[in-house]
Amino acid sequence: MKGKAAMVNYSFVGVIYAPLLHNGSKWRLARNEERRTDTSKRLEKARSFTPPSKRRVRFSTSPFLSLNAAECSMSETQNAQSELLRIAVLVSGSGRSLQNLCEKIHSDHLRGCEISLVIASKPSAGAIQRAENFGVPTRVVRQKDFNGNIEAFSDTISHVLDEFQVDLVIMAGWMHFYQIPTRYDGRVINIHPSLIPSFCGKGYYGSRVHEAVIKFGAKVSGCTVHLADNKYDHGPIILQKPVPVFDTDDADDLARRVFEKEKEALPEAIQLFVEGRLSVENGIVRISRR
């Protein structure tokens, strides 16, 4: 859990909860018996309990305010509604990529964002438990409840995204066609376990992708992160990471190797989006320097 503050009357008193401690060289998560609090008329007094990197602030509208940092003035805390980009993850399976993203955010390797919502396509998806472990709200939207009506299925997903005021949508192991409305153009990212445009499109998912790569005799595979549009595995490419394909590989071997690259590529692409460094020119993503 990241640092939190609760203020009964934020004009007069602040309470900082600090689950991180500094050992002289780096910050680490405090054990239960080590966690500390402090009270003050000013938040500055709690700075020593919070690492310098924790400078993001996010508030609810209740009188108990949720902070991810203490590096702020009282006037700033009253006026700032949210500095964190709100992410929703669409998932159909175990949620390994979701787990990776949550861990990256909690370890501060992915900054300026939070997972605000997980939408699963079935109630048995393992991703639901992973989300709950991190305190992330979940919703289930099942395609079969819409009798093949893709528009109604997609509209329901979009309304849930609207409800949670989502800024960016990540499709990570999402097995269904989501018809992206205009208001989410350029705000949906997909990750695919091959080097698009090879071994992609309708029917290419999971182990099927890796089996096709091996059967074709390809010597290189990898993963692709791209801005999604309303075609399967299509849209401007943000990042690609290659891996070798060995003669002794089976689909599981290749899947493991590709997933290790997926764990790098998806957070990198999200960070670029968060920092506003992505632009699209004539269907091609351009990445600006810092």
Automatic annotation (TrEMBL):
Pathway: Purine metabolism; IMP biosynthesis via de novo pathway; N(2)-formyl-N(1)-(5-phospho-D-ribosyl)glycinamide from N(1)-(5-phospho-D-ribosyl)glycinamide (10-formyl THF route): step 1/1. SUPFAM superfamilies: Formyltransferase (SSF53328). GO terms for molecular function: phosphoribosylglycinamide formyltransferase activity. GO terms for cellular component: cytosol. CDD domains: FMT_core_GART (cd08645). Gene3D superfamilies: Formyl transferase, N-terminal domain. Residues 86-270 form the Formyl transferase N-terminal domain. Residues 32-52 are annotated as: Disordered. GO terms for biological process: 'de novo' IMP biosynthetic process. InterPro entries: Formyl_transf_N, Formyl_transf_N_sf, GART. Keywords: Purine biosynthesis, Transferase. This is phosphoribosylglycinamide formyltransferase 1. It comes from Gracilariopsis chorda.
